[in-house]
Amino acid sequence: MNTFTAYGRQLGRQIARRYYRISIKQRILFSFIVLITLSIGAMGSFSYWIAAQEIEDNAYAGSRETVSKTAQLLDSRLNDVALSVQSLMLSDAYRKMMVDVLSHEVSNYYVHLSDLQYVLSQATFNQPIIENVLIVTPIGDFYSTTQIRAQDNSFYGSELYDLSKEQPGGYWAKGHYDRLFTGSQRVVSFIVRGIYEYPYTPINNVFIVVNIRESRIDELLNKGGEQAGRNYYLVNGEGEAVVESRWPFRGRFPWKPVLAEAGKAADPQDHYYSYGGKEYLVNYASSAVSPDWIISGMQSRDQLLGKLQRVQRITIYVIVVFLLATWLISNKLTSVLLKPLFKLRRLMRRVEENQLSVVYESRYEDEIAQVGFQFNRMMSEINTLIADVKAKEKDKRHAEIRALTAQMEPHFLYNTLNTIYCKSVMGENDDVNEMILSLSQMFQIGLSGGKDLIPLADELSHMRQYFAIQQKCYEGLFEYKVTVEDEALLSCLLPKIILQPVVENSIKHGFSDRTIGGRIDITFSREQGLLHICITDNGRGLDAEQVKQGLVRAPQSRKGYALFNIRHRLALYYGDEARMDVGGEPGKGSRTDLWIPAEEES
């Protein structure tokens, strides 16, 4: 006893130490969970007990009502079958057949068989529950030719015939294997003696057999689908199954003592019976068409009260919801106290994501707020330093761009001035005037008021002035063509003096081995949001791979420097958004493609 007490005290101390080590937030949460669980558990148990009583009463009442309605539905269908048989016996084809039966005339058998096809088809059409109909007469059997008659089995030698003699007014036979037609499927049969015209005298040796498949009776009993654990069965007064398609106990369930015991009960429509370790609620109602038939509904008491499981689930859900609410409330209480610190932590995480514009704001002046204000001063200094670095980098980039642009100022100026001088000495004043005007306009556009980006229209004007000068310097050497697929592209901005160096390469290097026949084609198009510039010539070509390797680093000589300069400037302006590609083969001309973001002038 002392050992057990000591162990209990030791365990209690361990639990206490663990409890003291947890945070206040966790202790509040634990207290709320215990309190809410006890209160909700008690309320749920009480609610469950009340709901169980109500659901049980409603389930019993619903079961009785369903059995009664099922019995009415079955009687209605069986009456419809009987009416179909009466309609058949009132048909003209049946009347003619009966005339030959009474006179024992067998020669017209096939005529009557053919005439009765419509009547038989109409009966099965009006009552889909009917599987087949057989008219048994001394002159032969009449049936639908869509069915296959089992010729080896005669109705007069069957058990159905023996039972019909005991019940001459017609009767319903319980489920059995159909021996009259092929297939040997289980059917329920309605047998009635044939009658003749008024006064509708029954004929002893003429019978009409209507077969209904057992499964259809079963579907009729359980019309609308099975409810959980509830099935309806058709039995006779001896407790034997009329329909065995859904017979779960294979005849072992003691229906006869159940019905007998239920008949002694105060309420004859429902009765509890224990079988196989389970308690079943048995409801039954007699058929009005066949009084010996009883429609019985059987359902396990546990399954009958299955709705209580929903109440249990709802109770559990309510407990879970309140536990979650408890967790939220406890979190809210602790969050109110630690809100400033959590806020500062979130700001620091945003700084880790490079969001440097964050500012800590607080109405409090406590220690955490002071830390937050120090954080603001630190972020202000960091932003100032970053802004200074960005400004210096921007100035550096602009200086580099302008230096590169300045390097692309037309170095053809000297040759152009010499050509102008020679033409002036030779008295070609018109050419001199045009060249001077073109050169002036080129420099005007090249200056562009200090702007680094100019519209495509201005760049084209600069290039055309260059072409005009070159065509005066090299008369008859080349022709050019400019194609703009979309006039809206003329307002797109691009770095100035970006086209002239490429064209100059075509003239200076591509056409260096010829005096006439040169051609330059320049195309401007829009491609996936980019301005696509394609410049081709039919000059002596180039080694594309060697030129592409030269674009990676600046060449040591002026040769190839123009393309490197253009590529470098595009990278400074647009980064990876702009691209440049050079193609061509020796002796087959060259091609230069530029892709520049299509930004229109605002």
UniProtKB/TrEMBL annotation:
GO terms for molecular function: phosphorelay sensor kinase activity. SUPFAM superfamilies: ATPase domain of HSP90 chaperone/DNA topoisomerase II/histidine kinase (SSF55874), HAMP domain-like (SSF158472). The keyword Transit peptide does not apply. SMART domains: HAMP (SM00304). It is found in: Cell membrane. The keyword Cell membrane applies. This is Sensor histidine kinase.
